[in-house]
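Teaching note: in complex prediction, the entire set of molecules is handled at once rather than each chain in isolation. The prompt given to students was simply: 'Predict the structure of this complex.' The entities are:
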Amino acid sequence: MKRYLIRRVLQVIPVLLIISFIVFSLVFLAGNPVALMLPEDASQEQIAALTESMGLNEPFYVQYGIFLGNAIQGDFGTSYRYNQDAMSIVLERLPQTFELAAVSMLFATIIAIPLGIWSAAKQNTVIDVFATGASVLGKAMPNFWLGIMLILLFSVNLSIFPVSGRGSFMHIILPAITLGTAIAAEMTRLIRSNMIEVMQQDYVRTAKSKGQKDSIVTYRHAFKNCLIPVVTIMALQTSSLIGGALVTEVVFAWPGMGQLLVQAVNARDMAIVQACVFVIAVAVILMNLLADIVYRLIDPRIKYD
Amino acid sequence: MKKYRWMSGLMLGAMVLAACGGDTDDTAADEDGAADGSDEEEEAAIEEDDNTLVIGTGTDMVTFDIHDHNATNTEAIHVNMFNYLVRRDGDDGFEGDLAESFENVDDTTWHFTLHEGVTFHNGDELTAEDVKYTFDRVASDDTLMEHSNYRQIQEVNVLGDYEFEIITDGPEPALLNRISRIGSGILPADYIEEEGWDHFLSNPVGTGPFQFAEWNRDESIVLERYDDYFGGDVTEWEEVVFRVIPETSTRVNELLTGGVHIAENVPPAEWDRVNDNDGTSIISGPSNRVMLLILNQAEEYATSDKRVRQAIDLAIDNEAITEHLLGGEGTPVQSRVTPGNTGAHPDLFDSYNHDPDQARELLEEAGYGDGLEITFNSPQGRYMMDSEVAELIRGMLSEVGITANLEFLEWSNFADMHANNNNEEMYFLGLGNSMFDAALGMDTFSAQGTARTGYVNDELDELLQAAAVNMDAEEREQQYHQAQEIVAEDLPYVFLYQAESMAGVSDSINYEIAFDETIYVENIEKN
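The expected output is the structure of the full assembly:
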């Protein structure tokens, strides 16, 4: 296991290198940020001077080389918008993003596990139809639309929750529901289909024929065996929540990494984009690693060495 | 053993949850735990405390380095914490702010006397040394974004604690304009020298009616009233919060639910919702932005022919755009320099040319009687109703026989095209004037500034060169009037309308949108 872990961690290096190259190339292709940094009435001299002072007149490979050399030392450059170390700005937002991701995941899990098991156990009943319909609807609604609708209903009309911002516990509820809904929908479907499959296995039949109670068969024997795909999806969703709560953070004015990334892309603030992508890549890798470790713990038959 | 495994499985499931939330869940709980009391109280306080003004803005301010940004929304916050030496008085004159008096001594010398007893928020007294420190910094450090607008200041001669002279590197008629805009606040020299620049950036200190309290990036900036303000008791508000709310509909929802008193930049789609709501309304005010068409006069384009440019101008009914499309929120213009800017030409404001028949004749004369096809670029979503205006212009042009192939570009590509002069015949743009002086608006038409349009006019060049160094204010104004008449005739740009700024406002306050898009909280009163 230890050797496996070391190997996995070492694999991170080429992955990050490739990611840095791709992101740098894409940002480079998107064009010179100087036009966006200066007002529309800037003179040609101002544009030329700023391009030169930012080193943007160098060829691609020189710019990438400089970037990589610095990034290896942990320096992702200075954000031109904030005139501050890019990585420190990104790390400043990380706790807020984690906070939202955690609560969204909690919300999704609390809804999905009972609903998934229940609809599998009561297959083809009203409950199952409801759960299936709700999952389709939950997955089909775009985040930004759901967010705006929740604000209109619960904040503007009913005045239960604050519209936006961060601070009290009440502030996190609506964005967490917005993000958690699609995840809950996906997990419910997954748990349901896995449970149905597992419930037809021989050992479940054996357990039933031994006279075990339904609830014990369902939770102790069947559910445990459908956990692996659930863990996979949770790991993937968590990493996408860390990097991908873009629209939701903007809609709810949540001061996390998603909002920062959206603004940085709009302004071509390359340093921030690079630092954000790096952090997201690390999060995805760590989450996958964590999922692998959890597989082993759930199912002792899985061996990595 | 089996039972143990089962339990460990469940626990691990829980661990996954914890990992997903993981320590963060704890963090969240901790933060919430810690924050619950204070933040909820604070939230309640914001809603109930009528001494706190809350303003919803679309983007966060960028820095407290007053010399290293060019963002109006950042300056809108700075003006409440830092004072300029002089302020524009609303027309085209100036009034003292930190300066008790000021006069132009000769072509390159300006004499100032400061108010006595002005204190910075840390208690230090303002002296001429602070002014010297401030202008020396921005005039000498060419890495600062605002350097190019202050480099004309050669030196500041300190004559006493409250007296000093600003020496310019040549005649600089627009000096007062230069020192009453972005980056013109006065910094505390001793404080910065003792504590260091980084400390200043996180604990900024100025002389204004509000002092810094906290800044949570992309979330909010909180300022508190400074009770020892030299101007006296100028504001009722004890605290002002600038909340960052990027999404327009969310900003409007905050206004409707009382979360903010002012929602900046509200687009037309939201006006009804704000006006129909009890206790909120949409207000407008003229901005310093003129919407215009930039025409390329390189030989290969038909727009190099003055008659074609005039035909385009005559084909467009400016008032139909402002009245019917923009609901009256805009004023037709024939110049980029509008009232409120030094050198504005009164006859070229609130006026326009519209005569489709003459446009057709001119096109016929120019050899395009059978029709003309041009490329027309427009941004989409950058300015209020920009794409609708562009569509309407295309329609108006087709009426006189010009087929404009309208291409919408995403803003970053559009900005690229604009900055690199990759434009074809015509594109739609809005231009501001951060100097509030005709010079900034007109210099683009001088021989040095026309890479974009290829427009050259020797008579105009002479006028602009003379005006740039003319210290006789009246004569200079006349020169700029003449220059604007030439441009209105030659039409390197076709001027459309002065844009309006729009905001949603709670009826509980009295707020007017400022021409320069800053927000002086001292001018906002409770109703």
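Point out the following to students. The CA atoms of residues 195 and 203 of chain B lie 10 Å apart. Confidence is low (pLDDT under 50) at residues 1-48 of chain B.
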